[in-house]
Automatic annotation (TrEMBL):
The keyword Transferase applies. InterPro entries: Acyl_CoA_acyltransferase (IPR016181), GNAT_dom (IPR000182), GNPNAT1-like (IPR039143). It is a peripheral membrane protein. Its EC number is 2.3.1.4. This is Glucosamine 6-phosphate N-acetyltransferase. Pathway: Nucleotide-sugar biosynthesis; UDP-N-acetyl-alpha-D-glucosamine biosynthesis; N-acetyl-alpha-D-glucosamine 1-phosphate from alpha-D-glucosamine 6-phosphate (route I): step 1/2. It is found in: Endoplasmic reticulum membrane. GO terms for cellular component: endoplasmic reticulum membrane.
């Protein structure tokens, strides 16, 4: 757990905000985690029991699937999140690749470098867990943000959605 007071956020508002970077917890269901994800994509209606079941399933994957969050402890609300999962491969002498997904910062706190903090945490998680690279998909609008954090454009992404 990493605490980030307003002194670490150059552009934090005059009202003190305390941000804590940590892993997702079951209680985050009531702290707006799903509402935050809805700023990124469709979540549907997920009951608290469904949330708990999925949380337990993902927790069983250990360090191969980590959801990080930043909580605004003044507001008791999740304001940023990002996920990393580790793919185990035969290539690169049974190497590992970190996949970063679902990075979003609440629109009310953008500009406070919370996205940078989430990405640094996820990249470090991949490094200490032996990944030889980290990859992610992003929109063209967000490309510059990721380039500032060391990512480089590499090929293209394709998707096939099942309805």
């Amino acid at each position: 757990m990493e605490t980030m007071g307003s002194a670490e956020n150059e552009d934090a508002s005059p009202g003190s905000q305390n941000f804590v970077l940590r892993r997702l917890e079951p209680s985050d269901y009531t702290k707006g985690f799903l509402e935050l994800l809805r700023q990124l994509s469709v979540c549907g209606n997920v009951s608290q029991q469904e949330f708990t079941n999925r949380f337990q399933e993902l927790q069983g994957l250990g360090d191969d699937h980590v959801i990080s969050v930043i909580e605004d402890t003044d507001q008791n609300r999740i304001v940023a999140t990002g996920t990393i999962f580790v793919e185990r491969k035969f290539m690169r002498t049974c190497g590992k690749v970190g996949h970063i997904e679902d990075v979003v910062v609440d629109s009310s706190v953008r500009g406070k470098h919370l996205g940078h903090k989430i990405l640094r945490f996820l990249k470090e998680h991949a490094r200490v867990n032996g990944c030889y690279k980290v990859i992610l998909d992003c929109s063209v609008e967000n490309q510059g943000f990721y380039e500032k954090l060391g990512f480089k454009k590499n090929e293209i992404q394709m998707a096939l959605y099942f309805e």
